């Protein structure tokens, strides 16, 4: 099974090695973490795509693809995400583990060399990235933004986030805006790239069964060339609600959406969030949950109805797809289920079934390299590193009294509805 070893290899650069003998492949990722800001969001999002198209050593896509083929069909990727009030730009490469390569090939070293080419030696035109790659990436990124708008379930949750976190970085899209994307220049990307290298927190992950020594040595040598400053990684958490905000939007659609957004002062920056996570799962996170069984199945008020907890922000969102005529009745039914949870109106079966479901979910997450990395990435950001086994023990130790206490802490802040036009 997995174990993690963590060390700082340069100023603000942390190397996390996860040893696991279940996989025949290995994965290396380098993630730059910075505060999510309106003025840099689109630049960082574009960099994640532009920088994986070419390098100075492999200046066109054909040469880069050939190199990946030579590495037993290794896969190279770049993506951007947000975690709380922070933006994360990740570059990764995965391929066959060293022990399965022919003639003793050191594939992990070769993959590291290529990844370092991507990160430290991009294809540049002076102090600018090349316009051809930028133009193509802008088009693709705007298509992704359009796809989120067209998916009304995603659109509605994004709108609810903008409302409840109006004055917080979490309200921003990890991609920025289409308008900002259009204005980004090659020089902007160059300055953004330099800033990532010098002013970020960097989390490197190596997942595999072979030695990570060659990976550490190369990345340490590269990052040590920079006079780095590690930026602070913070999240705004507030459980205070002064008034419930109600926002309605109308569009041409067949199924209305309703999002109920709640605040709590419980977050993984300072608390053990497992009791809250269990309470939220009991409410609407599993097939045994109150929202699924009662609001959706028994009352037939929703096409779907589920809850999820954003542990680094202390927020809970309840998402539902409803008929327009049922919106008010569905809202009241949902709030009744939360009241029942806060008043202890639930059975031991509900507790035990939810605990089992959560533990199975944890175990499933860690069944592949990507999931295992995702698990520990979340852990290191909260400075509380625990294995899947430890997390399951934590879940199973949560008491009925803790569940009730957590449910009472959830305060309704925002009701957002996306309704079909008459």
If you had to describe this structure to a student in words, what would you say it looks like?
- The protein is α+β, with helices and mostly antiparallel strands and 422 residues long.
- Helix content is 44%, strand content 22%.
- The protein contains 15 helices and eleven strands.
- The chain has helices at 38-50, 61-70, 107-120, 131-150, 152-164, 178-183, 186-198, 213-223, 274-284, 290-298, 327-342, 348-365, 369-381, 388-396, 400-409; strands at 3-10, 13-19, 25-35, 75-83, 86-96, 201-208, 245-251, 256-263, 304-310, 315-322, 411-420.
- The strands form two sheets. Strands 1-2-6-3-5-4 form a six-stranded mixed sheet, with helices on both faces.
- The termini are far apart.
- This is Pitrilysin family protein.
- It comes from Ruminococcoides intestinihominis.
List its salient traits.
422 residues, alpha+beta, 6-stranded mixed β-sheet, 5-stranded mixed β-sheet, 15 helices, 11 strands, 44% helix
Concise description?
The protein is α+β, with helices and mostly antiparallel strands.
Order of helices and strands: EEEHHEEHHHHHEHEEHHEEHHHHHE
Portion of residues in helices?
A: 40-55%
Can you count the helices? Answer: 15
- Given as residue ranges, the uncertain stretches (5+ residues, pLDDT < 50) are none
Main beta-sheet annotation:
6 strands, mixed
Please tell me what the overall shape is.
Answer: globular
Output mean pLDDT: 94
How many β-strand stretches? 11
**Strand order, largest beta sheet:** 1-2-6-3-5-4
Helix-and-strand structural type:
alpha+beta
How far from one another are the termini? 56 Å
Instruction: Write down the Rg.
Output: 23 Å
Strand percentage lies at 15-25%
Pfam families: Peptidase_M16_C
Protein name: Pitrilysin family protein
Organism: Ruminococcoides intestinihominis
Domain Peptidase M16 C-terminal: 184-355
